[in-house]
Amino acid sequence: MTGVGGTLCYRAMTGTISDAMSDVFVTRRIPDAGLALLAGGGASIAIGQEDEQSGLDRAILLAGARGARVLLPLVTECIDREVLEQNPRLRGVANYGVGFDNVDVAAATELGIPVSNTPGVLTEATADLTWALLLAVARRIPEADAFMRAGRFKIWGPTMLLGADVGPGPDGRRKVLGIVGFGHIGREVARRAAGFDMDVVAHDPKPEVVEAAGARWLELDALLEHADFVCLHPRLAPETRHLIDEARLRRMKPTAYLINVARGEVVDEGALVRALREGWIAGAALDVYEREPATAPGLAELTNVVIVPHIGSATHETRARMATVAATNALHHLRGERAPQCVNSAVYETATWRRRMTADG
Known about the structure:
With about 350 residues, the chain is α/β, with parallel strands linked by helices. It has 2 domains: about 5-120 and about 315-355, NAD(P)-binding Rossmann-like Domain (Rossmann fold, 3-Layer(aba) Sandwich), CATH 3.40.50; about 125-305, Rossmann fold (3-Layer(aba) Sandwich), CATH 3.40.50. It is built from 13 helices and 15 strands. The chain has a 7-stranded parallel β-sheet, sandwiched between helices. It has a 6-stranded parallel β-sheet with strand order 3-5-4-6-7-8, sandwiched between helices. A hairpin with a 2-residue loop joins strand 1 and strand 2. The longest helix has 20 residues, at about 315-335. It is elongated and about 70 Å long. The two termini are about 20 Å apart.
């Protein structure tokens, strides 16, 4: 890729299969800020898919891997051992996203391939969306919007579209915000709760982190039993898959709300549909799904759930910054330098990595 008269130029692979060499294979188009940074660093670029609403054909992914020195995938692409083994000249994987469960990091490390991500960039945006979803489901904002658009609002009435208080409300009772996973995003969600005069409880493998932030640590089941709003922010791991299952949904208050902006697999979505339909809980708001982009049968028909299409980091500034962080990591991979956000940094001490750095002279 070269810049001509300030215009970005690159090779698009959409709908084609080609093993032609490129410095960086971007699986699906990222914001121009990242592409411009790669171009400024002298990297040639191939883009696998230009269409925002289309996935990447596996054959194109494999061809791109065979022809690239660095992969820059989105979290929608599965970068497994087969992909990583396509090219002995592959110098790194610069994932576009803070999550990297789409990459087989163990296989990458074994093969001498550094993997990087974009941490710390989307914390604020995702915490903001958590609160937007919490307020939307509690105050029934999507229902009210649909009510207006359908021309159903004829006159104000005292029982129309009643929702739940988030702050203390007229009775003065402070609501309990339960946060599961108290990393950067969880802590930012907790910090915003001060404006609503809420009591914050949290569950995390590190109780000391919770207590240092001024929140109260609880066992998960106790949190679910006490919280009026439960926000999920754990990392996806074998032990957190279906962390919120039928048994735990039944522990929640019938007046409580569940908000998930972490990973869809954290929640048993089928059980959640039953919980919402049968009134085990009052409502839910979701940004992520167990079998994304599909939703569990019946979920989209329910009025007590707010569903949005994985937009936790979807602000102009955040997505552009993610692109520049990913591009910066990619350039470091390309040059054989330590990437600033490498998630398997021990790989740099291996003979396998050193061999890769000399594979193409």
